[in-house]
Structure formats: structure tokens, C-alpha cells
Specification:
452 residues, 15 strands, Diaminopimelate Epimerase, Chain A, domain 1, five-stranded parallel β-sheet, inorganic pyrophosphatase (n-terminal core), six-stranded mixed β-sheet
Length: 452
Amino acid sequence: MTCIKSSSSRSYHCADMLEAGSPDMLELGDIVEIREGVAISRGGKSEAGEIIAHADRLAGLLAAGSPYKSGIKEADDVIPRMWPTLLSASRLLVRKLLLGAPVIVHFHNDADGASGAYVLYKSIEDLRSGGALRGECDAIWLMNRGVTYDVTDANHDRDIASGFSAIDKPLLVIIDFGTSVGSNLGIRHIVDQFDVIWLDHHPVEEGFAGAQLPLYINPWKFGGDSNITAGFLSAVFSKTISRMDTREIENASFIGDYSSYADKRSGGTDLATLLDMITSDVRIATGRPSKNITPKEIDAIISDKQKYKELLAYAKTRMSDTIGMAMKSIKRYKAGDSAIYLSEFDRLRGDDTKYPLPGRFSSKLLEQIIASGSGHAILILHFGSFISIRVDGAIADSVGLLGIIAELKDRYAEEIESGGGHKNAANIKLAQGYDKAEIIKELISMLKSRLK
């Protein structure tokens, strides 16, 4: 009986199963073996259901443990409430790895999304190094530059899955993006063909279809908020199958996504900068023209001390130079005791590099504005058909950024294609060809009203 095989020239190698001394593991090894990427039952003695049942039992043994304690009180209050769902997700992931089913992981291209993918990759490697898995059984890692899981993403994943036949569904894992109604159509395209694990921390939009998925895991559903970043959530998820030290990765995620849990005095600051840089410009990071980078490639860069040092120095210089140019040309609007700043990003970044990307640059620029002693501030950075807004954390609650964006979307339904984010950071995408000047003018007016 064939469990999984490549039906095209695309290769998905999962070498021989496992051998960790457990009678259950040996029993599964007696039933299933994988030769040259093809999983088969030995002697045809077992049906698909029996094979899956054995894999489920093994997954239950491998994915276990008590709730992770991070040492952050607010997070540790939420983690136990998420833990049963995280365990269910982990058992599903391990089952897919044991059976050799395709596992496709999408992650957002910033420090938070990349840290989430990286820590998941490392936990799978840790599981393998402990003897539970043998050989290379890697997932298919895809970096997403958009904030929605759209029909194009869904069709691409369906095309990948169609290259294999299996006794179990393929698995789709989404990290740090997609929690908006803009993802609904994409979800409808994959929900019957894939099992899904969705790890995110953005506020859940009303009507978002993904919230109904059994393994949609978001701290907002468990009494937490966006300060529990996607990278941190993925690190907690990894603790169900691994006991490796993830504290630096966790803090890099906090720092990269401006969580209130970030500790810039401990490890993670340089890693956050590096992850931002290499996910912004893969060509500079790897020397090859590509829009995708895998956690395995990220791990190789992190492990190469000289490469790490060179890329980090490049990132810091590029960011410093771009911020310097922005501070000389920025426009300022008085708003009560605060100020609104407006900058055009297209004039700041050269054509020779994609770093920094505008979203993360706007956060850095706002930091510099606040550090200059100008008081509380809001930054609007526009580029192409996008508008990026960053709000000083001290005034974020009174501003109500997400409410403003929701009102703009209602008022300009045809002009605004999508919009959303956090209370401190959000983006608006305009319909193609629409002049953003009117939207920016109205946005400034609404922000001024909130700040009076």
C-alpha cells in the first residue's frame, strides 16, 4: 500500500521512520517504511486506518509535557489555557511527520514571523536528533510578504499537494499573518483538502472564517493580546515536542514586533535585526535572487559567525542612513499635546536594496522621533498604494487606531482594498490606481480629533 509518493519531478524526501526503543515505535516501523521518498506498508498487512492509528499513538507519546513557563507573568497566565489546543496541534504535526505527509508552512516576512518559523524548524530538528525521526523529513517553507492568505496562496498550496498521493491529508501551517476577512476566500479553497494549524496574534476581525478552524490558535481567544507575539507563540508550541532553550528567539520576536514583553538588555536584539534584514532582502542575505528563504538557510546564516557579523553591520548602517534622510524631510502636524508626522518612503530607499522594508522602517523611525524629545507622536509613512501607521504606545489606547481604520474602510469601501493590524501598528492597502492623498488627509483629520 502506498502512503505517499512524489508524482512529479518534485522531491519530498522523508527517510526511514523512527527508532527510539518504544515497542509502539518499533511496531510502526514494522508496518511502514520509506524507500527513496515512498512510504509503503510491509507485506501489505495493514490498512491505512491502522497505520494512521499507530502514528496517532506515537504522536501522543512524542507530543506531551506540562505547560511551558516563560517567566513573564502575563504570558504564563495565558499559556495554560492555550496548552490543550497546542498539544492537539502538536500531535497532528508529529503524525504528519511520522506518516510522511506533505507539511507546508507559510510565515510572514518579518522578525516575528521568521522567528516563529525558525523555532518550529529547530524543534522538529531537535525531535529528530533525539531519535524519534530519522533522516530528512523537512517541511516546505514559504515566506509570505502579504498580510492575507489569499486565493493565490491557496491555489499554490493545492498545486504542491497535488504532486503527492497519501493516506493522510497534507498539513498547512500558517504563522503570523492572515487574520482578516481578506483571507476567507483562500481558506475556503483549502479547508477540505488540508488539515490546518494557524498560529497568530493579531486582533481577530469580525467575520474572519479562520477563527472557526479547530486549531486556530491566537492569544486573543484565550484572554491574551498581541504582546504574545507569533514567534513567542511558536516557541511555546515547540515546547510540546522539544526542551531546547528558546529564550533568545522569544525575545527577538518580542523586540521585532514591539511587544511590551521585549527586554532589550538581554539576548535577542541583534537576532531581531538580522531576521528583519534577511527576510527583507534575500539576495543580500544569500547571494541568490529569490523572494523566499527557509529556516534551514536562516540557521546556516546564524551559525556562521562571520556572515552574521557582516549582515548585522550592513543592516544597522542601512537603517541608520535611511532614518537620517527621513528625519530631514518629514512633515509635522500639531495635534493637541502630540504631533502627527508624515513621510514618503519611496523617496528614501534606493533601488540597490529592499532593506529596510517600509513597515518595520516606520516603527524604527517613530522610535527615533520619540527619542528626539518631540513628545508623543504618530507616524504615517506612505509608499505606492500602501499607508503604514505607527502610534506611540503611551497614547495608543486613546487613539483607537483599529477603530479609525475600520471607519475609513466603511467610508471608502471602493478605494480601500484592505486594512488592519494592532493598536500600535497598522497598514492600509488602497485599490490599484487610487490617489492616496484624500485618504491621508482624512486620516490626519481623524487622528487630530482623537488627540485633542
